[in-house]
Protein 1
Amino acid sequence: MDIQNVCKNYIQRSVVLVISLCLLCECLMLTAPLSLGVGVPLLVSALFVLTVDVASALLFRWVAVSHADMLPSFFTGVSGFRFLLALVVLFVWFVASDSESMRIFFIVFIVFYMVTLVHQTIFFSRISNRL
């Protein structure tokens, strides 16, 4: 298995997933009667997902090449790190905003978080079965 192509494929799928989620969110906001500001929550959520996904793909490449026996620990560690980083982002937003913008941010962020968590789980479970 070509680990380099696997990592590139994961990053490409993550970018497509983020773009799709952004477009879906914008389409939903166009049809919603309320004019809720989702621009900044959308940007923060997209940057969070892309940063974590690119970092985990590059780290996966390093672990798969150098320490293949540590891959189960890697998957657990990445999931835990993603969760802790998400809590930090939510806490910072909570401290810096009011209650209505927190509600909007929480909804947008959790949708991005859950969709990418499912993407990561499916993608890496298929890869680990082939290794």
Protein 2
Amino acid sequence: MVLFLLAQGGAIAIAGASMLAYFTKLETRVSIMEERGAAYTVSRLDELKLKINSLEGQIKNNQATIDRLVAAFLKDRDARP
């Protein structure tokens, strides 16, 4: 019985050490990814902001064109007898 309890305690200790090693390795990986990924993420977000600004400008130009076309169409329609 004592031998069984010692073996069980050893298994629990080994499992604990294994979990500790796994979580330490995982934390190291996450830390490395955060350090390496931070610059990439910031540059990617800056690129996305530039694209969004460009698309917003295009939307404004397209809206102005549409407004002019609608105004011309309505004026032409109202001028007809």
Protein 3
Amino acid sequence: MNNFEEYYNGQFRKDILTFFSKIPERSKHTFENKNVFTVQYQSLTKDFDYLDFLAEENKAYFGVALFFTVLIDQVCYTYYQDHYYKFERLTCYPKFVGNSPSTDRTNLNPRDIFGAINYSRDKEKMFNTENVKFWNAFNKAKPVMETETMDFFKNYLSDIDGHEFWQRCEQEFPFHP
């Protein structure tokens, strides 16, 4: 798939559901609220086969789409707490968390999603399997996600300035030109 917008608005929803169907129940709801989905760092790594259902060319799109989903959720929570409850009800975006009981309720930086997808504790898997390259997918995704974000706030949470919100997101980008 060469078009991030098509992937994000169609296939990503299917892929995230497939991903959640593969991970253990205890890993997808580490918060007290079982309506909140969590993605543990380890579930994205090469140590598990949870992402093996993805075509190789879609792994970069999946990682980038997950990054933006988590980032937008975290930006809303951090800067717009008065609106977060409504935002969370409308989006049901997953949280990206650690692995252990002491960190599985702690939100990790969404940038770590890219490292997680390319990581393995097994040296052979780490160094002998191809890493996913995110740069091109990320650059294709930026304008799409900016438009999606602006439209979301215009249509559903108009009290939040979408342009200001997006600027806060940009401050967290891992890849800059």
Protein 4
Amino acid sequence: MVSRQKALSKELGERLRKLVFDKYNEMQEVTEIGDIRVATALVDDDIEKLVLLVLEEAKQPLSWRDLKAIFGGIVGEDRLRRILGVLKAKNEVAELSHTRFALPEYVPLSEINRVKNPGIISRILELKKGETQ
């Protein structure tokens, strides 16, 4: 069971990493100066959009380790950590125990008591209430 779960996680991770690279390349501005191509770095708002896209596509909580692997080579660890902090502060992302992150709609009800940013709990409960009606 554990090896099967790792294989699924690896497949999901690879799919999400490809998605991030594709979107990153679409968002990035490239300027050509003679034979030299210069690419601009994405601003934090763009990286926030990529993080939200990844969490939406995953449809489940992702660990910090998974997010580091998905964004490796695109966003440094410190910047990714800061962006996750901003998204938590805006109550757009829930942080669960074991340093896992999810959109409110993908936080299992059984893990509500493990949410580390309590400001988002009412939003999660509202979304869950809407699903049951």
